[in-house]
Amino acid sequence: MIADIPLPSRHGPFEQGLWAALDRGELAHQHCAACDSWHFPPRWRCHCGGALEYRPVSGKAHLWSWTQVHPPVLPAFAPFAPYVVGIAELVEAPGLRMVGSLLIAADDPINRVQPAQLRIGMPLAAVVREIAPGLPWPAWQIIETEQPAGEAS
Amino acid sequence: MTQGVTIAGKVAIAGIGQTRFGKGLEPSERELACMAIDAAIRDAGIAPGEVDGLASYTLEATPDFELVRDLGLGPLHFFSQVGHGGGAGPGAVGQAAMAVATGQARAAVVWRSRKRSAAASRVWAQTSTVLEDHWKWSRPSGLLRPVDEVAMLAQRYIHEHGAIASALARIAVTLRDYACANPAAQMHGRPITAADYHASRMVADPLRLFDNCLESDGAAALVLLPADRAGKDCVVVEAFAQGLVTGHQSMADFHRPDPLKSSSHVTAAKLWSMTRFTPADVQVAQFYDAFSPLILFSLEAYGFAPSGAAARFVEEGGIGPAGRLPCNTSGGSLSEAYLHGFNLIVEAVRQLRGQASTQVANAGLALVTGCDATPNSALLLRRQA
After folding, report:
1. Whole-number percent of chain B with pLDDT over 70
2. How far from chain centre, in Å, is Cα B27?
3. What is this structure's pTM?
4. Which of A94, B42, B283, B291 is deepest in the core (most CB within 10 A)?
């Protein structure tokens, strides 16, 4: 956990199911039964007009992009800089992506992973952990695989 | 094919004005706004009391009524602000142009004034402790600054299309060269080389210091008049468009199938639908360049290079003074000044008047764009003989 980071309000519209799942240590996103699509960030309804309800997701993802953030940064993050931040694309749907820290071990600090260890398309798994007191949020653990011959994504 | 009634040729940018650009300028943001607007009004040859329209960015800190009182403008019959930071500039001009074209305003001023060089004024440094807006989805994970967000898109672009480092270096050096020819530029007299670029410190991998815009104080302003009031040989608005693609969220635009197909793409499609001209007709462009990859993205979005080919376009000298499309010819946000892109619009007018520091020969049609990473806007300006 990092003290004094900017915190997300948990009271935004259509978000209750997201936070309820995270509080249980799980990850869920809005799903449209009518057209079988997934959505994040939370919204009123599906573009097809269908109703949305939160359903658990697998937590499996691939690395869509990343950057390594160098100073100057907000004071809360300064002791960790430079650190990598990733974007995970969940296997459930193209475009279903979340920004989060990348990890080797589930309890790593945010700055253990190095750019040389990263390959866009590499498999990730969600690790829901508190990034501030009372704030569960998924970070993404790099899944060890044998070096693949081709790109996953 | 053009759609409906357009504003093509109906509104002239009849006056331009700007202050000094620099760090730590003494005048307040409001004084800077007054100085730039006063210069633009004098350049247009009208009286302050004739101005009955004002448009600006929602980022603007000075209320319109203060400027009306300070400068003796008005009474006003049109006042508007356009949102989304760097995406706002051409939109603010375009909305004012629509007002002038329809008679809602007879003379409109559009301005941007900024004292940005103090670190405390950086927008990202003002992050509140509880995030209510869409940045709640990314900032708590440490993705804090606009450069971090653009870096994510640049890294993805590299994955899809190949290396861009030498193109980014070429952008930084080309714009610095333009600034060195422009005595008003903040970086005038401070040339850099590609080696300097590659040696500059990393800020957000793959983006380095010289991929970032300047921190600037300064102001710039335009006066819009009906074209028939502006006389012969004026600069007119040929076309204007705004664009926001479905699923987009400002800057942290990561949550739809193809974020590299940015709001610029829908802005461009609308822009080109509003005019008989095509990208092939454009002789000079001013692309919003808070970060250098935005020039690559914009070259593709507005139709000057195929998808994935912008780096090659730049590496072959395409944006230089002898290139196919000289870009950001006053030095742009990287090397002239960073006024959320408003100085780019002033430079487009100078090019069409034949008054630019690096003048493109016989420039008759100029494109100006807003930020590729936000809801966006663009202007096509034409010299009317």
Report:
1. 96
2. 23
3. 0.96
4. B291
Instruction: Please indicate whether, in this complex, the C-beta atoms of B137 and A83 are within 8 angstroms of each other.
Output: no
Q: Say which CATH architecture domain B11-118+214-384 belongs to.
A: 3-Layer(aba) Sandwich (3.40)
* Long-range interactions of B115-122: CB distance < 8 A, separation 24+: B115/B25, B115/B28, B115/B29, B115/B32, B115/B217, B116/B215, B116/B216, B116/B217, B116/B338, B117/B22, B117/B23, B117/B24, B117/B25, B117/B215, B117/B216, B117/B217, B118/B24, B119/A72, B119/B215, B122/B215
Count the Cβ atoms, other than its own, within 10 Å of residue A78. Answer: 10
Nearest residue, CB atoms, A69 vs list B135, B140, B148: B148
In chain B, domain spans: 11-118+214-384
Quote the ipTM score: 0.95
3-state secondary structure of B225: strand
Is any Cβ of chain A less than 8 angstroms from the Cβ of B203?
Answer: yes
User: Measured at the alpha carbon of residue A17, what is the angle toward residues A16 and A19, in degrees to the nearest 5?
Assistant: 70
